[in-house]
Amino acid sequence: MNYHYVIIGTGVQALVLLDRMRALGLNVCCVEPETHSGEGQTHRLPFYVHRGHFYAERELTGQLRDTYPSWQNMIRRLGVRVRSTESHVGFVGDSSRWTQTWDALDIPYTQTSAKTGLLSGHRLKEVFSFPHMLFDGRELVAKLRQANRDLLRCGTIRHISRCWQGYRLFAGDQLITSKTLIVCAGANTSRVLSGIPGVDASVTTQTRVCQVLTMRGAVANGSIVVPDAQMSIAPQYTADGSTVLLYTHGASPIRTERNHSIDIERLEKQLDMLRATLPGLSEAGRVRGIYTTLETESAAMGKGSRGSRSFVEEVAEDVLCVLPGKPSFAMNASDQLLSRLSLGRRHEAEPAPAQMAPHYFPPRVQQAFEGVQHA
Q1: Which tens digits make up the pLDDT trace of 284-343?
Q2: What does the H/E/C string look like for 289-319?
Q3: Where are the domains of the chain?
Q4: Residue pLDDT, tens place only, 158-180
Q5: pLDDT digits (tens, 9 = 90+) for 136-166
Q6: DSSP letter string, 170-205
């Protein structure tokens, strides 16, 4: 089987990119090394798309705002059910950094005085509401796979080698050739890159341990984030359609040999903050559980700055790498990668003079967004 592009990956990012490249009529397929596509993000953490209201940084907020209509179109086209549009951002202190950003970028929001549902008896200083899409991430993955099933090639990649067409690889018992490889492998990015001949670059990643408290019972179907208290509460949907709220608190620590288990002190802080800010939800979600999951990101992150300018790295002339990132930015990463491919095709059709060539090659980048990997 011969293709112009082969995507290597199993998650939401790979499937979103495949779906968009298919729509453009590109000769592409996706090789899925694992059998359970998208399990890392969609089975262990909530998945929903927002317009950037979590962030005070204009660059991050602007990127998510710009791609929100594309998410809406995809969700509508695939027939993914929107389970709720109840979404809030609350603050224990001053909200001006965030509201100034929202105002500057025309992000829609409404201040609310409601104290029902998720906000029952809340003790937050200010709360704002946003109509965002909340849906089942597993349903999104299933619908993407169904819509693009004829372009999926499942099987463990046994070998990648150079050939006159570009690259030859074996996925299970299938022989596939491709002119260009696109790596969307999340936590396995470095391992995949190391198996591609002629690629010296690697993406250095680090793994963070995320401790998740689950709340069941008479809980509202919606989400709330308290950025200045590092609280995030969002729904996940079970097979019978009921809502489970997943709650994380604080900055996730970098993984070490000592922090793979539940941190009781961290759990107590989670519960204390929940009772102090959202007492009604604390009372309603009395049926609780807890687990840890892993988030993989670039090692350049976690040093007081957040990578936000580039999602794609050109690691070789014919190998592009989509850096591990939050699923909410999958559309942004796809935009950037498609722009690179379009740029390459234009230059191939209209070669520049030799002295101008350096101006036509995109710079390499070393920044990435957080990714999530199944624990």
Answers
A1: 998 899 998 888 876 654 444 444 567 888 888 899 999 887 788 899 999 999 999 886
A2: EEEEEEEEEECCCCCCCCCCCCCEEEEECCE
A3: 2-39+141-204+306-373, 48-135+206-298
A4: 889 988 889 999 888 889 999 99
A5: 888 999 999 999 999 999 888 888 998 888 9
A6: EETTEEEEEEEEEE--GGGHHHHHHTSTT------E
Radius of gyration of the chain (CA): 21
Q: Please tell me the distance from the alpha carbon of residue 18 to that of residue 146, in angstroms, as a whole number.
A: 12
- Phi, psi (deg, nearest 5) at residue 326: -65, 140
Q: What is the pLDDT at residue 284?
A: 92
> What architecture (CATH level 2) is domain 48-135+206-298?
2-Layer Sandwich (3.30)
Domains 2-39+141-204+306-373 and 48-135+206-298 share a fold: no
The 10 Å Cβ neighbour count of residue 263 is 17
Q: How far apart are CA 128 and CA 111, in angstroms?
A: 4
Give the 3-state secondary structure of residue 58: helix
Q: What is the CATH number of domain 2-39+141-204+306-373?
A: 3.50.50.60
The CA-atom distances, in angstroms, between 308 and each of 62, 335, 363 are 11, 14, 15
Phi and psi of 10, rounded to 5°? -130, -5
- Give the C-alpha separation, 122 to 232, whole Å: 15
Q: Which tokens in the block code for residue 199?
A: 């690629």
